[in-house]
Sequence to fold (258 residues):
Amino acid sequence: MATSRNHRPATRASRGIPEATVARLPLYLRALTALSERSVPTVSSEELAAAAGVNSAKLRKDFSYLGSYGTRGVGYDVEYLVYQISRELGLTQDWPVVIVGIGNLGAALANYGGFASRGFRVASLIDADPALTGRTVAGIPVEHSDELEKIIAENGVSIGVIATPAGAAQQVCDRLVAAGVTSILNFAPTVLSVPEGVDVRKVDLSIELQILAFHEQRKAGEEAPLEETAPPAAPPAAAVTKRPDSGPDGDVPAVMPA
Fold:
């Protein structure tokens, strides 16, 4: 039975929430969920901001878009904020997801336990390799890519995850979009071209590692002793050399005039 897509919460555009704020809401939700699991009833903006890795002024501004201002001297109600942010992110409903490309990365994503706890249900695993068809990964049978459109229609899928090699990613993306998928999480190391109205989030682990390598190199340079980084001293202007035919003092100019 297909899952209806007609009961979505108000979009961020209609609510006037900036994209940067939307990007931080999952950070707040993660920190709040951890507090909720420890039965912490309230939290100050300073404590929550520190847990989320942002400053408290930015947090208060972000929460003002949600209509949540907290209580002076008390802070924010943890459970209510969890509900508010979950509702704004659309996590109070079930989101069926398909993962296309069941190699090492795709299989790891299928086994990730965080999807279900955050409102996402892996509806299907899809791969073009006939040898994988029927094989079970994380309790879900792998289906052949020939069935992609049928699977999306039957499950009401609007979110697709691409974990294929780069060369196949654009073709898979085109098929997902044509079948009705409007949001794509791309793990393939390539830039996808999509029509207006389709959102793409790219996750490139190699780029993130390269950025970390850049910072490590800078830190190593800053920590190097001064003598290791200083240029070599210029030779003295009156440098001399010892020659067998030198005078009694053994000193002659290093460069003799013609």
Q: What stands out?
A: The longest helix spans residues 19-37. Residues 1-14, 238-258 have pLDDT under 50 and may be disordered. The chain has eleven helices and eleven strands.
